[in-house]
């Protein structure tokens, strides 16, 4: 059986560094990816991502800005604890932003299932400025090529059936 992997760029281009995932996805369109990999820029389209996650992918890699308390531009690979995510309260799906936790809860509410989930996150510097903000900050823009390298490494590892890291444990952040 051929493995199928979803690469999902997510974020809002009008909210500064929240566009990290969208920019990485845009640049990956110029890269040669393995046939088993489907790349998509979901932006803030929560329902589209929810349906894609239920489409039989063995692994999905969400590419997004994520605040973990490190310096801006720090990259993370995180395998979320799905049990704790399902218990998190919060708003319903918002048409102006994408909250991956809400998307996963939506998948569950629709009776769907998804495969393994990884998040390639980047620590943002500028999010949600009052009047909006186009473009990535300098440290986040500098992290985009490193993120693309990390994605190629992740894909190689996933497609060779190796173990990336212990389930639920983040890899060391990459400054």
Can you characterise this structure?
- There is one protein chain.
- The protein has a single domain (5-159), classed as HybD-like (Rossmann fold).
- Helices cover 31% and strands 18% of the residues.
- It contains five helices and five strands; from the N terminus they run βαβαββααβα.
- The chain has helices spanning 20-28, 46-53, 82-86, 100-109, 138-159; strands at residues 5-10, 37-43, 59-65, 75-78, 116-122.
- It starts with a strand and ends in a 16-residue tail after the last helix.
- The model is unreliable at 92-96 and 165-173 (pLDDT under 50).
CATH homologous group name: HybD-like
CATH architecture annotation: 3-Layer(aba) Sandwich
Distance between the termini: 37 Å
What percentage of the residues does DSSP assign to strands (E)? 15-25%
Order of helices and strands: EHEHEEHHEH
CATH topology annotation: Rossmann fold
- Shape assignment: globular
The low-confidence parts are 92-96, 165-173
Q: Portion of residues in helices?
A: 25-40%
| Total DSSP E strands | 5
- Structural class estimated from helices and strands: alpha/beta
Q: What is the gyration radius calculated from CA atoms? A: 15 Å
Largest sheet: 5 strands, mixed
Keywords:
single chain, 175 residues, Rossmann fold, 5-stranded mixed beta sheet
Helix/strand layout:
Blueprint: E1 5-10, H1 20-28, E2 37-43, H2 46-53, E3 59-65, E4 75-78, H3 82-86, H4 100-109, E5 116-122, H5 138-159
Parallel strand pairs: 1-2, 1-3, 3-5
Antiparallel strand pairs: 4-5
């Amino acid at each position: 059986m051929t493995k199928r992997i979803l690469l999902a760029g997510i974020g809002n281009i009008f909210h500064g560094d929240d566009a990290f995932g969208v920019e990485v996805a845009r640049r990956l369109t110029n890269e040669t990816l393995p046939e088993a990999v489907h790349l998509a820029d979901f932006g803030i389209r929560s329902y589209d991502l929810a349906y894609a996650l239920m489409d039989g992918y063995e692994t999905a890699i969400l590419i997004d800005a994520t605040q973990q308390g490190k310096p801006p531009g720090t990259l993370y690979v995180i395998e979320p604890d799905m049990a704790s995510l399902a218990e998190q309260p919060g708003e319903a799906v918002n048409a102006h932003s994408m909250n991956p936790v809400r998307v996963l809860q939506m998948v569950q509410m629709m009776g769907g299932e998804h495969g393994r989930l990884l998040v390639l996150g980047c620590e943002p510097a500028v999010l949600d400025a009052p009047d909006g903000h186009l473009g990535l900050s300098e440290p986040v823009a500098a992290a985009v090529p490193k993120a693309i390298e990390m994605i190629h490494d992740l894909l190689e590892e996933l497609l060779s059936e190796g173990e990336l890291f212990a389930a639920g444990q983040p890899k060391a952040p990459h400054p």
